[in-house]
Every structure is written in structure tokens, then in C-alpha cells.
Amino acid sequence: MKLLLASLLSTTALLAAAPAIPCDTLAAKNFGKAVTLHSATLVPATDKLPAHCDLRGVIWPEARFALKLPTDWNERFQMVGNGGTAGVISLAAVDTALRLGFAAVSTDTGHDAAKEPLATFAHLTPENPNAHRKFIDFAYLSVHETAVLSKQIIQTYYSTRPRYSYWVGCSTGGRQGLQEAQRYPEDFDGLVIGAPGLFLTGNVMRRIWVAQSQLGDAALPPEKLPLLHQLVYKKCDSVDGLADGVIDDPRRCDFQPKRDLPLCSATDSATCFTAPQVAALSKIYGGVRNSKRQLLFPGEPVGSELVWADNLIAPNKTVLPRSESQMKFYVLDPPPGPAWTYPQFNFDKDPPRTAKAAKDLNPRNPNLAPLKKRGGKIIQYSGWADQQVNPFPGIEYYETVSKRLGSAPTRDFYRLFMVPGMLHCAGGPGCSNANWLTPLMDWVEKGVAPEQILASHLEKSQVTRTRPLCPYPEVARYKGSGSIDEAANFACRQP
Hints:
The protein has 495 residues and is α/β, with parallel strands linked by helices. It has helices spanning 2-12, 91-99, 131-158, 172-183, 200-213, 225-236, 257-260, 275-286, 308-311, 319-331, 355-361, 369-373, 392-405, 407-411, 437-446; strands at 35-43, 52-59, 63-70, 76-80, 103-107, 164-170, 190-194, 288-289, 295-297, 377-383, 414-419, 433-434, 453-459, 462-469, 475-478, 490-493.
């Protein structure tokens, strides 16, 4: 981690710019009728954060933001993304950027999760008359408005605009980044887009699909997940030619529950799977389908089974209530409201009802030509074992952009990195600890495109393995000699 921080600090070094006006005078400045500044506080340096001006405010109707302006500024701006249904300011990520010298900002996207949990902010009631605007703010608008306002404040405070502007986000933050790239390509010069939920409406539908598969005697006991995981890896680990505890590309493994799992002959036990459980697993891996067997959303990639209890199959966990709430209040048209429950979703009749919300929520427009024209750059990454945001729509999007603009022109400004064995945004058996920002900055500011990105796997904060991550569709292949735990013994090659 110290090496990661050092590499970031070396890349971010520019001549430091100092404030042109006192911090506390910012709160009295006028940045438009839609903006209310609540406070501007000069915070002295500590052992955790450098000296900075902490500015808090709100953009109409309810988009709160926190902008931190370092006393020694590297002349760069960074905006950080949110997770889940947002509703909180991502202060930890703001502070990470601040420590590197960035002027950094985050928005709660227009609602307070403590007062309006999950998707209730979009529920139109007499007490919540701005529900539709808050939905649009969550979908895309608050991020854009906060970015524009932040640059205006930066100009006022330092008497100069940022030389470079960056977006960094994963999950919902990845979706937000793609919204920016497509709708407002002038906002950022470079975007780190992690695990983007760009097909949000489909991903919500997929969680409902999995939850319905777990009703009744088809429910998969969490105690069986280690056995399932073991059998998946027995089938899939060595498909790439190297048995290393990581599934390189789940698409290359032909794992079929009905064929590859031991079936309980009589009573249920910990060493086998019942016929209803096998049928449920076939549905989970096979993808969301209607009664005509048409695929509506991709199935789960093999490899993430050990964390399904927390993120997929257990109905009392956070992911299903969030998806159910999203269906209630803004995915389905018209919204069914508070009384609706996930078993009511009909996979023949209801998918068309998600189309209206998809136009606002799903950044799937492949026309990135405006971003490319102005010199913008994208590094996108996803884990092959992502248990929360299915990685396949992100790959499909990249391939669609490549077909539209051409493979070589797309690689000139947009590269996708798939991380074998990585779960959602981080973690898992793969090498998921990577510095995504420095390669992006080198690309934007120096014209050096990332041919590979070094990643590591940590155990108790110690590096136990390193691997190169390769720009899709390239994959890391073992050279045939040396330790399989050292990146130097692998090379990026076409699959």
C-alpha cells in the first residue's frame, strides 16, 4: 500500500497552487440561485489530512455536496462516485484524493439515505413533491451540476481553473462515470470507471430473478456454498492452462449444475444438492429469462459462490431489499408503490415496464465520439467474479463502442481491464489491488496508454501474488517458467 501511495504522489506532483482568497469568504459568494453554501471552514493540517478549505452546501432541491480545497493544490480536480442508491457523501474517497493534492468533491446525489432509505426518495407523496427531480438527480444530473459548480468555486478560490479533471468511482460510481462520459463529455479529462452498473434496471431484475429462484424448497443453504465453490473450481480453474486458484475467464468454463453437481438420492445432506436446488442454480447461472426462454439479462459468472450468502441468495440481506425498493419506486412504470413485493414480478409482463426508467438510469449509449474528440480517456475495470454487478453488460458495452468507432480508435481513448477472481470492486482470490488512477493520469497528461496494469493479491496486508492486468480482450498468460506468483513471469496476449 505504501508503494501504491508513493506512485500516486509522484504522478500527482505539479507546482503547488495557493488560495487567492480566504477560505471563510467562499460561503458569502454567489454561485447562482440554485446553490446554497452552508459553511466554508479552514481546516489545519493533521497527521491524516493536509490543510484545506472544507466547503459544504446544497444544490436545489436537495443535492448536498462536500468540496475540499487543499492549501497546497496540485491544480487538478477529482470527483468521486457513490455506492448503492447513494444518499451519502463519499467523504473517505474525497479525503483520499485530498491527500494527493486534488481539489475533491462528492455529492449525495440529491437525497439523504438516513431519512429516505433505499429508493424511497423517488416515492411521490405530498411530503416529497420533488420525487421525480430527486430521481433524475440520482440517475445523472446531480453529478454534472456538482462538477460544474465545483470548477466555478475552484476558479474563485485559486483564481485559476483545474489543469485536469478526473472522475473516480466504482459500482454506482462506475455507472455515474459512464453517464458523465456519454451525457457531459466536457466535464472530465479522464475517468476511472469500476464495475459499472450500466444496465441497472436489468441488474435489479436479475436480483429479483435470483430471489424468486430461492423460494420454497429450492432455497440453497449457505452451508452448501463451500461445496458448490469447490466443485466450480474443480471444473473451471485449470481451463486456462494454469491451476492457480483463479478462474481466468468464466465464459470458457462449461459448468452445468445438472451435470456437474452431486444429486441427493433421497434426503437432503451437506454433500449433495436436491433437484429443486439444482434447478435453482441452473436458473442463477443461466440468466434471467421469460416463458419463451428469451434471455433478458446474463446469468452469474462462475467463481463468486463463497460470498453469495451476503450478496445474492439470502433474502434478508441488503441487496434484495434495495432491488425490491428500486422496483417499487422508480424502475417499474407506473411505480407499484410500497405494498409491492418481489414475488409479484412477472418476467413476461413486467420487463417492458422498465424501459422508461432505463432511459435515465442506464448509460448504454455507445456514442463516445464527443469524449474521444476532446481528448478524454477512460479506464474501465470489472472483476470476473463480481457477485453484485454482473460484469457481462460492461464487456458488451465496450465491444459495442469498439464496433461503432473501430477497435483501434477505441483503444486510443478507452480501455477495459477484466480482473480474474476479483469480486465487486475489490477482494476475492484474484489480484485486485491495483492503482487505476496513475495509469489514467499518465495517459491523459503524458499520452502514455496503459499496455498493462500491475495488480497484487494481499493476505493480512502482505503481498502474496502479483499479476499484470491486460487491456481487453488480451489476457495474462504464463510464460512457462518461474513462480506463478510473480507478474514478471506473465505476458499479455490475445486469448
